[in-house]
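FORM 12-B: Structure-to-Sequence Request
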């Protein structure tokens, strides 16, 4: 069988990389090619380099100020050429980006079977997160095999009348990537990690922050930055590290409000190895990222999630994640409570990770081999 894996953004690349590597062990059964849309050029390339993946097709579609309409049209049009040339049996897409949705539609039109990794996450709210919720629902409609990370995501798919035999619970492939990378970062020489060591103090507790979601652009980021400023001033003995997303709608307010505060380090987005290293060093993580919410519980790090609802309720239920939205007061209060209340901190950091055991890719491949 011929497999085509298509992805375009940093998180998709991190979560698809272990599958690319696992499929490389099965060349007797599969011919596998990788196509990148490069929806996020720079952040994607960092991941490809770390996992040593050279795409077979590179659509290089990122444009300045790109809009979703043009991007969708470009992906569908350009992918048609790749699908005609390679004629894959299976097209693998991941998660909920515009690359995911447009690839799924293009593959559906071309008659390839669609395998959706990280299937079945839902908020059931059309606009939240935008456009991810609709991207994954639309992808789910045309998918043939749904690889759901948890039983919760499987039950979401069953509610949409997806056949149970087309759903496999695998765990999230991000844990496969994280476990392998956490081991590897202990032994590699990495310039970004050396730079971080030179700016950070080993004596000070570290809060790691990331944020990029479209729904938080505007007022959301202003409130988030106000909270970070208050925490930094209230606790001069902690250090906050914030790798700032490249989107100007994030970069501008963050630099403007937090640029001058001495115990806040605003840095460029990090390559995956340095980010994994930094997660391991941190006391707690404040984020609106999906992937980070899934990774942090594996490392025993409490997470405050700057969203009002989440398609990842498993960690909230397990007690390793608290939703704080973008309310300045709530972000400050929950952070201070984790910093000041040791019992509360230990309670949150000691829970188990509900997102898998690092063997998701093995399960995906086992399922496909059984289809032969
Ligand atoms: N990440 C990274 N460098 C950074 C920030 C995040 O490599 O500076 C990784 C992180 O470990 C996670 C993924 O990127 O695996 C999350 O990406 P993002 O937050 O952009 O997207 P989301 O998960 O919200 O879709």
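FORM 12-B RESPONSE
SEQUENCE OUT:
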């Amino acid at each position: 069988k011929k497999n085509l894996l298509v992805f375009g953004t940093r998180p998709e690349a991190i979560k698809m990389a272990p599958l690319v590597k696992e499929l490389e062990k099965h060349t007797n059964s599969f011919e596998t090619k990788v196509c990148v849309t490069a929806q996020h050029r720079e952040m994607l390339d960092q991941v490809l380099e770390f996992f040593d993946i050279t795409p077979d097709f590179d659509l290089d579609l990122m444009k300045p100020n790109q809009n979703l309409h043009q991007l969708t049209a470009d992906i569908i049009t350009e992918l048609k050429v790749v699908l005609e040339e390679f004629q894959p049996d299976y097209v693998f897409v991941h998660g909920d980006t515009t690359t995911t949705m447009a690839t799924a539609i293009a593959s559906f039109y071309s008659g390839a079977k669609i395998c959706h990794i990280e299937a079945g996450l839902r908020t059931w709210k059309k606009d939240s997160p935008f456009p991810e919720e609709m991207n994954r629902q639309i992808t789910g409609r045309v998918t043939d095999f749904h690889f759901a990370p948890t039983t919760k995501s499987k039950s979401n798919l069953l509610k949409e009348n997806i056949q149970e035999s087309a759903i496999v619970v695998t765990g999230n492939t991000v844990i496969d990537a994280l476990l392998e990378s956490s081991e590897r970062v202990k032994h590699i020489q990495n310039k970004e990690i050396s730079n971080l060591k030179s700016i950070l103090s080993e004596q000070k507790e570290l809060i790691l922050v990331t944020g990029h979601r479209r729904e938080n652009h505007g007022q959301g980021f202003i409130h988030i930055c106000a909270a970070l400023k208050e925490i930094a001033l209230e606790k001069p003995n902690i250090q906050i590290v914030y790798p700032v997303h490249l989107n100007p709608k994030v970069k501008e307010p963050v630099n403007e409000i937090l640029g001058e505060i001495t115990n806040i380090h605003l840095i460029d987005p990090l390559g995956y190895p340095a980010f994994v290293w930094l997660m391991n060093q941190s006391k707690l993580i404040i984020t609106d990222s999906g992937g980070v919410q899934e990774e942090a519980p594996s490392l025993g790090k409490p997470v405050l999630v700057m969203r009002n609802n989440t398609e990842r309720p498993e960690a909230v239920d397990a007690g390793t994640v608290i939703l704080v939205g973008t309310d300045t007061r709530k972000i400050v209060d929950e952070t201070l409570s984790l910093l000041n209340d040791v019992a509360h901190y230990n309670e949150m950091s000691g829970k188990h990770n509900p997102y898998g055991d690092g063997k998701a890719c093995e399960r995906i491949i086992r399922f496909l081999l059984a289809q032969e």
